[in-house]
UniProtKB/TrEMBL annotation:
It comes from the Bacteria. One of its GO terms (molecular function) is metal ion binding. It comes from Microbacterium lemovicicum. Keywords: Heme, Iron, Membrane, Metal-binding, Transmembrane, Transmembrane helix. The chain crosses the membrane at residues 23-44, 64-82, 103-124. This is Succinate dehydrogenase hydrophobic membrane anchor subunit. GO terms for cellular component: membrane. InterPro entries: SQR/QFR_C/D, SuccDH_FuR_B_TM-su. The keyword S-adenosyl-L-methionine does not apply. Gene3D superfamilies: Fumarate reductase/succinate dehydrogenase, transmembrane subunit (1.20.1300.10). Signal peptide: none annotated.
Length: 147
């Protein structure tokens, strides 16, 4: 006969780090920080200046000329991608029952998130609006930045 433990029986867990607990804490903390970062990003891009019609290549070039905005967007990129990947990992762990399929899917999520983080960080940190600059065909805004 099989016995079922009482509902209040304490769970004895292995020694070591509790990754699920730290993932849960990360989701809450990163979510709060992301709310501030995203609304700040939207406010600056859509409400300040000319609004959405003012967003063009020159706007982005001027924004990424500042280390502050590089750090802001970089932090937003890292937190959002890790937050999303951790959420996908949780969903995969909840719904995929076959261990090998679960490992493949979680691995794919990790690879995709890592690739996007590296690519996005490279774009933010190495953005050069003057690459291939030709004064004869450039707009006045780009000419003023690259002069």
């Amino acid at each position: 006969m099989t016995t079922i433990e009482a509902p209040r029986t304490p769970v004895v867990r292995k020694k070591g780090s509790n990754l699920e607990k730290w993932g849960w804490i990360y989701m809450r903390v990163s979510g709060l920080i992301l709310v501030v970062l995203i609304f700040g990003h939207l406010f600056v891009n859509l409400m300040v200046g000319e609004g959405i019609s003012g967003i063009d290549f020159a706007f982005v070039a001027g924004k990424y000329a500042s280390p502050f905005w590089q750090a802001w967007d970089g932090l937003m990129l890292w937190l959002a991608l890790i937050h999303g990947a951790n959420g996908m990992r949780t969903i995969i762990n909840d719904y995929v029952t076959h261990p090998r399929t679960r490992a493949v899917l979680v691995g794919a999520v990790v690879v995709a998130a890592a690739f996007l983080i590296v690519l996005g960080t490279l774009v933010i940190t190495t953005f050069d609006p003057c690459l291939g600059f030709d004064p004869a065909t450039a707009s006045d805004t780009i000419s003023s930045i690259c002069a």
